[in-house]
Structures are given as structure tokens and as C-alpha cells.
Predict the 3D structure of the following.
Amino acid sequence: FTATNTASIAAFQCTQRAAFAAEREDWMARGLHSFEEPDLPPPPEDALPQGARAVLAPVPGSVWQVLKPPGEAVAAGEVLMILESMKMEVRVCAPATGRLATLAAAPGQTVRTGQRLGVILLEQDHDPRSA
């Protein structure tokens, strides 16, 4: 098969290489041949209120889905949102049981590792002796 089609294979490969070279030249002309992420500082974060835990981004990426809205009760380990990083889905789980007080992330938003995505107000233990 290869011997019979040697000429057409060579012609196709020549056309393919020329098209790719033209595409690379177009990328360079439009400034798309390289990508450099600006070294921006992480967004400022307010201090956490007493009895609260931050929900942090475990990896850099973009927010794909938000599964829990602010105000909703969450359990430790429950998935709050999903990030897309390197074509993989990464679950962001609640670090503690409580109520999701704030959410600082929206679908499509780019996030950095360690960036605060939300705040959980921890459940208070109810001691009958303190009533």
C-alpha cells in the first residue's frame, strides 16, 4: 500500500508542512506564538471572621461549576465547586461543616492556587450546660 501511494503521500506531507508553516507565520504576525502570564499579585482578602474557615483553590485554573450557593449548609468534604485545570476537573471540597457564608468565585473566573474562593461559618457545638 505504501509503495503504491508513495507519490500521493509525499505530496500530502508537503502540503501539510506548508500549511502549518503558514499558520505559524500568522500566529507570529498576530502575536499569538507565545503566552506569558503576567505576574500579578493575588487578589486582596479580608481577614476571616472568628469561627470561619476559608475555602481555598487547591490548584490554578478556572471555575467550571459552582455547586453550592452562599447561605447553604455544607458538610466537611462536600463538593462546593469544580475547577478546570490542565483539562482535568478538580473538586473543591468544604474544609469543615457549617454554612457557606460567602462565595468569591463564578464560572469562567481564573483562580490561583491558595486563592480564597469562599468562607464557611463553622457550626457551633451546642453545650446544654451553656444555656
